[in-house]
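lol forgot to send this yesterday, sorry. struct tokens for the thing we talked abt
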């Protein structure tokens, strides 16, 4: 759903901005930032 929504949004742009999906994982009080976790 997230990728689909991003494609719809970006499809309306005349000039594509940089785009990536980051994920933040919170586990046992620790934060993990996964940059560019998946693509669209």
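and heres what i got for the seq, position by position
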């Amino acid at each position: 759903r997230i990728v689909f929504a991003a494609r719809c949004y970006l499809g309306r742009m005349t000039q594509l901005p940089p785009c990536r999906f980051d994920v933040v994982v919170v586990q046992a009080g620790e934060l993990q930032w996964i940059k560019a976790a998946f693509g669209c």
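The chain has a mean pLDDT of 93. anyway ping me if u want another try
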